[in-house]
Design goal:
- This protein has helices at about 15-25, 30-40, 80-85, 90-95, 110, 130-135, 145-155, 165-180, 185-195, 210-215, 225-235, 235-240, 245-250, 255-265, 280-285, 315-325, 335-375, 375-380, 390-400, 400-410, 440-455, 465-470, 480-490, 495, and strands spanning about 45-50, 290-295, 300-305, 310-315, 415, 420, 430, 440.
- The protein is α+β, with helices and mostly antiparallel strands and about 500 residues long.
- The protein folds into three domains: about 15-55 and about 280-315 and about 345-425, no CATH class; about 130-275, no CATH class; about 430-500, Homeodomain-like (Arc Repressor Mutant, subunit A, Orthogonal Bundle).
- The strands form three sheets. It has a four-stranded mixed sheet with strand order 3-2-5-6. The protein has a two-stranded antiparallel sheet with strand order 1-4. A two-stranded antiparallel ribbon has the order 7-8.
- It is flat and about 100 Å long.
- It starts with 15 loop residues before the first helix and ends with a helix.
- Residues about 50-125 and about 280-285 have low confidence and may be disordered.
Length: about 500
């Protein structure tokens, strides 16, 4: 049986403006300028400029207008009855793309200043690893067929310098991809030429062991230490990577001094010969701080990076278009459609400016709370002064949601007189001491790092010994927790920290 009924439901939905703000909060300073440029390309009603009251001219949703406005000294653009009849939406949209429009994408305002990088400016050109190898093909004096095979081999070498495909696979690739019938012997011969003659030494190896051997074979002069190093890598590689030095030393019959020369020869080799040519992502090459904290005679002063506070405004040209429509006596359908389009662009620009301002406020509010919570660290730079702090602590201070605090802390950096830190650095769990005091796990990791840094590398401390030493210092901690912290600090186990 069908029935009709009325129900009341309370739903929580995010508005498009809230979603836009959440996305902007996650954007670091290094990418904010690009995000603003994207928005300006999509919305010509948004411009870079000084402070502007975007609600200076407010159009009513009604079709009629009284003709009065607060335009001030701005010249009003009026549409006559004849003009109104000729204006359509296509003409209006075309006006946005005209070179003589009120918003020129090539102007200095769009890029901030004439000093910044602009289209057509010279950019840095870097040669990558594969280009470096291909440039050396000429010295092999190969015919066209062999050159194609050699190019296929080089193309299969990864950025670290290792060949990741078997010779049989290369033979198949050449047959199906290049139409060249070859065999493993021909490909292998060209590969050996690349391994023996190309720079850097070690390029084209399949394994780390082979890579190190290729480098040792190219070393001149061939001293006793080099010969012994080749024997260690060739016959005792497993023992070497596990640092069973005593066993290797006994098998080679070397005294401590000679064996130390062998180890020093090996550790100078490059395990990734292609790494010297690696091109880092531009965004990863530089850290642009989002905040700056200064200690002014004990008073911590917080400033926001100027790039987080761009001067945006609503286009005067678009506002004048609305004034022109408002002053027109005759309003046809095409003009009304144009008005709707203009209002959408103006509203979108207004929302974006509001979101940028709200982003600035939220960033400052969150960072100020972090500074207040970790005041001792920002005054002294002492890592052991860091207090246990989680996202919830900052959310309670700022009255923001935990997810909002998380977005602010993500990919943001603060510059202090002691260095530049990621905001996530200041967040850590709590650990209780024997006295019942809660300390930051960051403090425990700092002390653990100092203990390991000061140990005798001939007899490094085991995890059990490290646990006992921390317990003696008053930190109630388990061995498995010490092992976890050691791994988080990228410190290997005691056997692998052992040195001669």
């Amino acid at each position: 049986m069908l029935r009709q009924s009325q129900q009341q439901k309370l739903l929580q939905k995010l508005s498009p403006q809230q979603i836009q703000l959440m996305k902007l909060l996650q954007v670091p300073t290094a990418n904010l300028e690009e995000r603003i440029k994207e928005e300006m390309e999509e919305n010509p009603a948004l411009e870079v400029g000084g402070e502007d009251e975007y609600d200076e001219y407010n159009i009513s949703d009604n079709d009629s207008a009284d003709g009065d406005n607060d335009g001030g000294d701005l010249d009003d653009v009026e549409l006559s009855n004849d003009t109104a009849e000729k204006v359509d939406l296509d003409d209006f949209l075309r006006h946005e793309d005209d070179e003589g429009s009120s918003y020129d994408h090539s102007s200095d305002d769009y890029y901030g200043s004439s000093d910044n990088e602009r289209p057509g400016s010279p950019v840095r050109v870097e040669s990558n690893f594969h280009d470096h190898l291909l440039d050396q093909l000429g010295m092999l004096e190969l015919d066209d067929r062999a050159s194609v095979i050699a190019e296929q081999i080089i193309g299969s070498i990864d950025e670290d310098g290792y060949l990741r495909r078997e010779i049989t696979s290369l033979v198949d690739d050449l047959a199906f991809g290049r139409g060249i019938n070859t065999d493993e012997e021909e490909v292998g011969e060209l590969l050996r030429k690349i391994q023996d003659q190309f720079d850097p030494p070690g390029a084209g190896a399949w394994t780390l062991q082979e890579c190190l051997l290729l480098q040792l074979k190219r070393m001149q002069p061939r001293t006793t230490a080099v010969k012994n190093a080749m024997e260690v890598i060739d016959k005792h590689f497993n023992e070497f990577i596990k640092k069973h030095y005593d066993k290797i030393q006994r098998q080679l019959g070397l005294d401590n001094e000679k064996f130390k020369e062998v180890i020093n020869t090996i550790i100078k080799l490059n395990p990734k010969p292609g790494s010297a040519f690696a091109i880092l992502n531009k965004a990863e090459s530089y850290i642009i701080p989002d905040f700056f904290v200064f200690n002014n005679n004990g008073v911590l002063e917080l400033t926001l990076n100027a790039k987080n506070a761009p001067e945006l405004r609503i286009s005067d040209g678009y506002k004048e278009m609305m004034r022109a429509y408002d002053r027109s006596d005759k309003k046809n359908k095409q003009q009304k459609e144009a008005l709707i389009f203009i209002k959408q662009k103006l509203d979108s620009a207004k929302w974006f400016i509001d979101a940028i301002k709200q982003r600035q406020h939220t960033l400052l509010q969150t960072m100020q709370a972090i500074i207040s919570f970790q005041r001792e660290f920002f005054l002294t730079g002492d890592e052991t002064a860091l207090k246990p702090m989680i996202l919830k602590d900052i959310a309670q201070i700022t009255l923001l949601d935990v997810s909002t605090v998380s977005r602010v802390a993500n990919s943001k950096f603060v510059q202090t007189e002691f260095g530049t830190y990621k905001l996530k650095y200041f967040f850590s769990e709590a650990l209780q001491t024997d006295s019942g005091e809660e300390v930051s796990t960051r403090e425990v990791k700092t002390i653990l790092n100092e203990i390991i840094g000061g140990e005798n590398k001939r007899k490094p401390y085991s995890d059990e010994k490290l646990t006992d030493m921390l317990v003696e210092k008053g930190y109630n901690i388990a061995r498995r927790t010490v092992a976890k912290y050691r791994e988080q600090l990228n410190i290997p186990v005691a056997r692998l920290r052992k040195e001669l």
